[in-house]
Amino acid sequence: MGDSQENQQQKNQAKRTTLMLVLISGAFAAILNQTLLATALPHIMSDLDLSESTAQWLTSIFMLVNGIMIPVTALLIGRFTTRGLFLTAMGLFGLGTVICAFAPNFGILMVGRVVQASGAGIIMPLMQTILMLLYPVEKRGSAMGMFGLVIAFAPAIGPTLSGWLVEHLPWRSLFYVVFPIVVVDIIIAYFLLRNVTERTYPRVDVLSIILSSFGFGGLLYGFSLAGSDPEGWGSSHVIISMVIGAVTVTWFIFRQLKLREPILEFRIFKYKMFTLSTALGMVVFMAMIGAATVLPILMQNMLGFSAFDSGLALLPGAAVMGLMNPITGRMFDKFGAKWLAVIGLIIVSATTFMFTTMTTETTFAYIATVNAFRMLGVAMVMMPVTTAGLNELPNKMMPHGTAMNNTMRQVSGAVGTAMMVTVMSNSAIPEQGLEGAVHGVNISFLVVGFIAIVGLIMAFFIKNPEHNKNVA
Questions:
Q1: pLDDT (tens digit, 9 = 90+) per residue, 389-438?
Q2: Which parts of the sequence belong to the Major facilitator superfamily (MFS) profile domain (predicted)?
Q3: In Å, how far from its chain's centre is CA 166?
Q4: If one looks up domain 267-472 in CATH, what number appears?
Q5: Where do the domains of the chain lie?
Q6: Alpha-carbon span 46 to 44, nearest angstrom
Q7: CA geometry: angle at 311 spanning 308 and 314, to 5°?
């Protein structure tokens, strides 16, 4: 009897592992695609004869549509089967990739990016929801750790791979690399993916979808524009989109609180641990994405490194974060999130302040080493606090939890990038040449350092749930 039970458990574990590989491959392709394009923009600009502000739309539109799709995923998860939704999302993503690969002009390339993003926006929260429902509470840390490995690895490989590809091949090769991963994943998912989410058939509130799109879209666009527009926060486009975003998000929130079946469940914030972990995740993501944007600018424009070199400098950090995520996941299952988050944020704060003393003589080795230690700190915080927050939710709230988590992370990534680029531009001292420009970078890291300290104080309020104490 014991043997058959053990065999059954092994079969379940094998099924879960296979499913996990399918989901993680999909997420890997989506995130890799998001980060590939940044390094290639100069090549696309010269090939299609675009200005910098026009080309920037290729990354902005992806982020925008992604940000619009994420809040709607909770509704989609309630209406469609897990299999159907995952295959549709990957299908859309694959179709968008093909359109981009063969786009004859900028307009078609933009259409491809929109189609890609509409699929990618569903993949991430859907994947997190499936993982949280597949694994029992005491094993979720390890599962989310594996998921974190992908989130860390893809953005790091992205700029380095992209830098190498565009130096040796046409920029379209970026999409040729992503497409086979998508095809293989769709084939495997078709045969192996089973339905794990419950269909509740929530009512579709059209006004909520419109408000969500304009609200989150407006905010994300405003923040990403503030980081790239020469006028920064003073630009009329930034102000208009921020105002539209803020007003419609407020309207959207009030409407959700009145609806019996909201698209995004804001009452979820009554779970204190979920609220705290979401806020902490936003702080760390802000610090991580902001640095990933500012360090390549510093290295290429101020320290004279190539695009490939700047991508290479971020690689050790991503490798550390990727390797640490499964380990911190296991540690979370054993000891809970509190002390992992506290130690992680001490490391993030200390290494961020180490980036405030850079000069034009700063070496490649210094940037790569400090960033690697910084990402070790990020790995200790990111997945454990996300899992701790989601663990507090009942299963029926899980789709809303993952959708909310991803939405807030997307917003904080845009905020962090815009804030760091703005502070960097405004604090630069033009009359001091390159030294003055590096001074701007130092000040931007100083601001992020203080934000990390706020996160560290918040980490002391994390409570470890009972099951961790029992396991430990």
A1: 888 888 888 888 888 888 888 778 777 777 787 788 778 888 888 888 88
A2: 19-467
A3: 24
A4: 1.20.1250.20
A5: 1-201, 203-262, 267-472
A6: 6
A7: 150
